[in-house]
Amino acid sequence: MLVKREVIEKVGLMPEIFFLYYEELDWSTHITRAGYELWYEPRCTVFHKESQSTGQLSKLRTYYLTRNRLLYAWRNLEGSNRWLSIIYQTTLAAALSELNDKEFLKESKESNDEAREILYKALKELNIPYLPSQTNFVFIDLKAPLKPFADRMKAEHILVGRPFPPAVQWCRISLGTPAEMRYFVEKLKEFRQKGWV
Fold first, then answer.
1. How many beta carbons lie within 10 A of that of residue 168, not counting itself?
2. What is the pTM of this model?
3. Phi and psi torsions of 192, nearest 5°
């Protein structure tokens, strides 16, 4: 990158707040906002071994890329563009970066599978019909309206799914951690003893 001294004097140096990634994009944005043009030489070839210092799938790289995308949006976008970018980065982009973390995915799947089995075992024990699922939720048949069950669970600090008309007696149970599912099962068994399920 070749930059005239007058540009640096007017715009300032590259921002150090970024540390890794996006500092040159932020600087380039400020340079163009100051009225200068950016040019490139199409006949020039540059070889760049990406992420050699941080590692392609490292937590350090993921952290600074995500953090600096948010920082860039905050510093350089306005109005709805700023907020849409921030919402995108904190949801979709963050989720996609987690897909590269094989250890996290393995642990998450194992936790989800364990939570599902805790729920299935209790439902079988209590003879409550359910729809088997490979997702992070299970539908159970309450054989009664959902609202009283949902209200009682809410009193126990558990939120369960909304009605899905016309199947108003079916309840969607989203899987939590194994510990959370053990708590849910404990309350479900208490409800059975009280005749509520």
1. 13
2. 0.55
3. -65, -45
CA dist 36 → 11, 27, 119, 128, 139 (Å): 10, 12, 62, 69, 59
In sequence order, which residues have a C-beta less than 8 Å from that of residue 95 and are 6 or more positions away? none
Burial call 144-158: b when 16+ CB within 10 Å, e when fewer: eebeebbebbeeeeb
Contact 14, 27 (CB under 8 A): yes
Compute the distance between CA of residue 55 and CA of residue 20 in angstroms, rounded to an integer.
13
Q: Is the pLDDT of residue 108 over 90?
A: no
Nearest to 169 by CA among 150, 182, 192, 194: 150
Mean residue pLDDT of the chain comes to 88
Q: Quote the CA–CA distance of 135 and 128 in Å, as a whole number.
A: 19
Residue 133 neighbours by CB under 8 Å, 6+ apart: 116, 139
Q: Please report the pLDDT score of residue 64 as a whole number.
A: 82
Report which DSSP code applies to 167. B
- Alpha-carbon separation of residue 47 from 1, 58, 111, 136, 145 (angstroms): 14, 22, 42, 44, 65
Lowest mean per-residue pLDDT among 93-102, 115-124, 125-134, 135-144:
93-102
DSSP secondary-structure letter at 93?
Answer: I
